[in-house]
Design goal:
This protein has about 130 residues and is mainly alpha-helical. It has one domain. It contains seven helices and three strands. Pfam families: KH_NucS_shadow.
C-alpha cells in the first residue's frame, strides 16, 4: 500500500473529490523520505541559480527507496507534489529526482535530463536492481 489514508478522508473520497492540500498531507505523512527528497530539491531550485536541482544520493535503505519509487511511479502522487511545490519533477532511476521550473519544461536542459542518452549514462551495476 502506498498511502496511509485516514478513514475520514477515505470517506470523503468515496463521496467525491478531495482537495490537493488533504491529498498532499497524506503523501507527506505516508512517504516521509520521498517528501523530504522532493521538498529539498524544490527548495534548492527556488533558492539557487541553477537550471534545476537534483538528488544524487541513494536512499539509506529499501524502505526509503520504496517510498521514492511509489511517489514517482504514481501519476496522482507525483502530480500532487508538483502542484504543491510548483515544479516539474523528473526521475531517472531509483534515487535521481530533479526539480525543474515549470517554464523549463520543453527546454534543452529538461529534454536532455529526461532523454534516453541521459538515462543510459546514469546507470551503474549498483543500480541494476533498484
Amino acid at each position: 500500500m502506498s498511502l496511509d489514508v485516514p478513514a475520514p478522508l477515505l470517506e470523503r473520497a468515496e463521496r467525491g473529490e478531495v482537495d490537493d492540500a488533504d491529498f498532499v498531507e497524506v503523501v507527506r505523512q505516508s512517504l516521509p523520505y520521498a517528501w523530504e527528497v522532493v521538498s529539498r530539491v524544490a527548495g534548492e531550485l527556488r533558492s539557487g541559480t541553477a537550471e534545476y536541482a537534483d538528488n544524487v544520493v541513494p536512499p539509506p535503505d529499501e524502505v526509503a527507496r520504496g517510498q521514492l519509487l511509489r511517489a514517482m511511479a504514481s501519476d496522482a502522487i507525483r502530480g500532487g507534489l508538483e502542484r504543491h511545490f510548483g515544479v516539474k519533477l523528473a526521475f531517472q532511476n531509483c534515487h535521481r529526482v530533479a526539480a525543474f521550473p515549470l517554464a523549463a519544461v520543453g527546454g534543452d536542459t529538461y529534454r536532455t535530463f529526461i532523454g534516453t542518452r541521459a538515462q543510459l549514462l546514469n546507470q551503474s551495476p549498483e543500480l541494476r536492481n533498484c
